[in-house]
Automatic annotation (TrEMBL):
Gene Ontology CC annotation, any one: cytosol
Top-level class of the enzyme under EC nomenclature: oxidoreductase
Functional note: Catalyzes the oxidation of glucose 6-phosphate to 6-phosphogluconolactone.
An example molecular function term from Gene Ontology annotations: NADP binding
Protein name as it appears in the record: Glucose-6-phosphate 1-dehydrogenase
Keyword Chloroplast part of the UniProt annotation: no
Residues the record marks as active site: H240 (proton acceptor)
GO biological process: glucose metabolic process; pentose-phosphate shunt, oxidative branch
EC number: 1.1.1.49
Residue span, Glucose-6-phosphate dehydrogenase NAD-binding domain: 14-187
Key word Oxidoreductase present: yes
Length: 483
């Protein structure tokens, strides 16, 4: 099966922080792939805006190198590289002053779609938004894209939303979370709401519990200073894991449109019960003979910042009453994987031998590294010898089922940027959604700080601290293997 590419209209995209790490590693290599696929039209223009006075040729050379380094271009795509590079422009700009804004204003074509990507620190969002309007650069239909973190608590999130809303309408603000751009995340909605098979079972009557795991093998790397002020709760749980939980737990929206989908996600967040202290585990990776500890990587020998979090959460509504949601995320774990596992209840009565019904049906949605879904079912083992039952996965791995078109399949950033150009906010967070997530997260963090909570140490290459294992074992359940 070949994916269908629908071109977007010509546009002007300005990337503030256009020489930064995100622009070089993700945004521009992704746009190049969309250009090669025929989705980005020849009439589009990408304008990098940053402090450095490197000039247009210097910028084009920089991005050419970034695409070769981070974009893994094929020999077939490289024939398009010169044409793509020709669409790049550069403006040296003073975000907090007036330098460069007049030049930027002259470049923008107001008769086309205008989008502005704020790939800079959140502290600069207000300055950029204000100057876009004071210089009459942004049109009433312009879109702005803002990266996380969307604040570090409820108070700062409200302040950030207020700053942006003073210059732009909510319909113009695209808060990007790249997890929502993953193919499998979107397929989760298709599986749930496009098939009659699952919806009757998608409730507390049939589901025992749900596990959401985002495990990383890397440490904090060069992000130590930032991460040490953030931690796994702010960096991963409040946004990525929260969004995955919402998509699993939300009610069917009346229509597949941005506000209908986001209204249902917001209801989920507002239905989350407060989390008791004994339902949260914090961890921090420890040193080994060959690897440094978190404290060494963060350059803070007294750090109490968590690199791992496990939470048992409950949603207080009719659909999910009594169903625990186990969330966990951590760094320096044994494998890199992101998975949602819907674990169904055991049979109320088995007609087979007791040993045959030990395992439960599990729908596992794999987000990375290999996107796909499996449904564990029980069947008869082939051959003579009686009714011997075995548990096997019905494999819905996309590369197998749909053909391996990884070269043509857009990654999360590519897809989301194209959605910005189309004006589709379905996969972007709304301001009230962000604030509701912080309202649930803040009391957990405040409780840690109030009691000077010390994270539990765990070994690099493990599945996390022992206390996280006990969190789920107390309920007679087990974490799925991190693999």
């Amino acid at each position: 099966m070949v994916s269908r590419v629908i071109p977007v209209e010509p546009f002007d995209l300005v990337i503030f922080g256009g020489t930064g790490d995100l622009a070089r590693r993700k945004i521009l290599p992704g746009l190049f792939r969309r250009f090669c696929a025929g989705q980005m039209p020849a009439g589009a223009r990408i304008i990098g805006a940053a402090r450095g006075d490197i000039g247009q040729q210097g910028y084009q050379d920089m991005i050419r190198g970034a695409i070769n380094e981070f974009g893994a271009p094929s020999a077939e795509s490289l024939v398009h590289l010169d044409a793509f590079i020709a669409q790049l422009h550069y403006v040296a700009i003073d975000i907090c002053g007036d330098g460069g804004w007049g030049e930027l204003a002259k470049l923008i074509r107001k008769d086309l779609v205008n989008a502005y990507y704020f790939s800079v620190a959140p502290s600069l969002f207000g300055d950029i938004a204000a100057r876009l309007n004071s210089w009459d650069i942004a049109t009433p239909e312009a879109r702005i894209v803002v990266e996380k973190p969307f604040g570090r608590d409820l108070q700062s999130a409200k302040a950030l939303n207020k700053v942006l809303s003073q210059q732009f309408d909510e319909s113009q603000i695209y808060r990007i979370d790249h997890y929502l751009g993953k193919e499998t995340v979107q397929n989760l909605m298709a599986v749930r709401f496009g098939n009659l098979l699952f919806e009757p079972l998608w409730n507390a009557q049939y589901i025992d519990h749900i596990q959401i795991t985002v495990a990383e093998t890397v440490g904090v790397g060069g992000r130590g200073a930032y991460y040490d002020k953030s931690g796994a709760m702010r960096d991963m749980v409040q946004n990525h894991l929260m969004q995955l939980l919402c998509l699993i737990a939300m009610e069917p929206p009346s229509h597949f449109d941005p506000d209908a989908v986001r209204d249902e996600k917001l209801k989920v967040i507002r239905s989350l019960a407060p989390v008791a202290a004994h339902h949260v585990v914090r961890g921090q990776y420890d040193a080994t003979a060959t690897t440094a500890s978190y404290r060494t990587d963060a350059e803070n020998p007294r750090s109490f910042t968590e690199s791992y979090v496990a939470i048992k959460a409950h949603i207080e509504n009719w659909r999910w009453a009594g169903v625990p949601f186990y969330l966990r995320t951590g760094k320096k774990l044994k494998a890199r994987t992101s998975e949602i596992a819907i674990v169904f209840k055991k049979l109320p009565h088995s007609i087979f031998e007791k040993s045959a019904d030990e395992k439960q049906n599990v729908l596992a949605i794999q987000l990375q590294p290999n996107e796909g879904m499996t449904l564990d079912v029980t069947i008869k083992e082939p051959g003579p010898g009686g009714m011997r039952l075995v548990h096997v996965p019905l494999d819905m791995t996309f590369a197998d089922a749909l053909g391996d078109h990884s070269e043509d399949t857009p990654d999360a950033y590519e897809r989301l940027i194209m959605d910005v150009i189309r004006g589709d906010q379905t996969l972007f967070m709304r301001g009230d959604e962000v604030e509701a997530a912080w309202k649930w997260t803040d009391p957990i963090i405040e409780a840690w700080e109030a009691r000077n909570d010390v994270p539990k140490l765990y070994d690099v290459g493990s599945a996390g601290p022992e206390d996280a294992m006990a969190l789920i074992h107390r309920d007679g359940r087990r974490w799925r293997e991190v693999k």
